[in-house]
């Protein structure tokens, strides 16, 4: 049986409901929209939370409710509302949801640049713009993406009455969209705002010790391996047995996939490029020109996904290959990031306005590990290419 959209992503299943915290968030969000929609200044509502904390789930549910009220000719009238995400694979999911839902339209979901440019050209203001993964918005001009402004969030604010954004600086993956932990402060100082922090973990089903272990690792710290009968956390000495385990898990329940840090060469549309992990050799994920997200295509069991194909998605089990950029410092017993070994050159396109880039690059690498290690609901399998780190992990 093939997994459905609901099983793979942030959308709640028919039998599921928002948690009490998510319900409080939704109530506060709608109160904020109602209070700010007719004010002269744009209002900002910020949703904070770690990967897997249910941010996208509550955002999608709230946007669905907003559009339902809007299109049923309620007191909201005929608002022009949009949900924006700067991530191709996540946009595919949103458009698939729209195609299967009588309330939503595919045009409700946009990438930021086309929406910004259209609103600017027509000199229009949107009513409410929801921004999922706002930490992926550009913070500098980008000719490739046809964005000529200085900051996409500012451009969206300039053309909206209310902006609702999901923001987690620990999921920033490129210098051209680099946000410091206090990157929103200048906006909050200028506009009426409210915020809500989601601190529950909805994706990773393991107990708090599992979540704490992952959080510690992605900050460079090593702790004894936790044990939880509800979450399968294993370290592997070779990539092939890890992949065999993923295949077994996928055969039994679906949505088990291999993913890796961007430490292996890859050039778009130039043949097949491979990820190696000990005796394992698998191709990188291919350019996906279909309407189906990478995680939902059965043939991708034979590929290795990247942060760009898996961010924002739920897997049941994630096999994570930590490439050469993730090493080990035996003197301080720490996990370290080495930007020189990171192959994602797009992530490190130079900027002259951020000072010393080395610590920022290191943080981007660790952010990518954070994204990858929090994909699996029921299990995480790890293999480290670096021999010293691999030995240390096996000894935990």
TrEMBL record:
InterPro entries reported for this sequence: AAA+_ATPase, P-loop_NTPase, SLFN_3-like_DNA/RNA_helicase
Domain AAA+ ATPase: 41-177
Record Gene3D superfamilies: P-loop containing nucleotide triphosphate hydrolases
Name listed for the protein in its UniProt record: DUF2075 domain-containing protein
Source organism of the structure: Lactiplantibacillus plajomi
Taxonomic lineage: Bacteria, Bacillati, Bacillota, Bacilli, Lactobacillales
């Amino acid at each position: 049986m093939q997994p459905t959209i609901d099983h793979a992503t942030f959308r709640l299943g028919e039998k599921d409901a928002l948690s009490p915290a998510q319900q409080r968030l939704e109530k506060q969000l709608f109160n904020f929209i109602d209070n700010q929609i007719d004010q002269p200044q744009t209002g900002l509502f910020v949703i904070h939370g770690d990967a897997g904390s249910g941010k996208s789930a509550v955002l999608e549910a709230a946007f669905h409710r907003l559009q339902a009220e809007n299109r049923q000719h309620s007191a909201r009238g005929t608002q022009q509302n949009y949900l924006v995400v700067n991530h191709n694979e996540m946009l595919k999911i949103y458009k698939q949801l729209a195609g299967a839902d009588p309330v939503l339209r595919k045009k409700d979901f946009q990438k930021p640049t086309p929406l910004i440019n259209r609103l600017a050209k027509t000199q229009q203001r949107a009513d409410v713009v929801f921004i999922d993964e706002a930490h992926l918005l550009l913070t500098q001009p980008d000719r490739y993406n046809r964005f000529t402004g200085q900051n996409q969030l500012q451009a969206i604010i300039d053309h909206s009455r209310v902006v609702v954004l999901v923001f987690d600086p620990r999921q920033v993956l490129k210098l051209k969209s680099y946000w410091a932990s206090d990157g929103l402060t200048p906006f909050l100082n200028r506009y009426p705002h409210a915020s809500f922090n989601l601190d529950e973990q909805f994706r990773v089903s393991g107990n708090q010790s599992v979540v704490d272990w992952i959080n510690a690792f992605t900050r460079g710290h090593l702790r004894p391996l936790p044990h939880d009968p509800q979450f399968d956390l294993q370290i592997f000495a070779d990539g092939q047995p890890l992949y065999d385990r993923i295949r077994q898990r996928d055969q039994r329940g679906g949505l088990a996939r291999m993913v890796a840090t961007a430490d292996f060469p890859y050039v778009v549309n130039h043949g097949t490029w491979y990820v190696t992990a000990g005796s394992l050799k698998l191709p990188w994920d291919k350019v996906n020109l279909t309407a189906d997200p990478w995680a939902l295509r059965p043939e991708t069991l034979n590929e290795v996904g990247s942060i760009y194909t898996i961010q924002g998605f739920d897997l049941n089990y994630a096999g994570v290959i930590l490439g050469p950029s993730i090493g080990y410092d035996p003197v301080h017993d720490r996990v370290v990031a080495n930007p020189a070994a990171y192959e994602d050159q797009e992530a490190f396109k130079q900027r002259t306005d951020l000072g010393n880039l080395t610590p920022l690059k290191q943080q981007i690498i660790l952010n990518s590990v954070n994204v990858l290690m929090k994909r699996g609901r029921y299990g995480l399998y790890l293999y480290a290419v670096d021999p010293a780190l691999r030995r240390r992990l096996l000894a935990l």
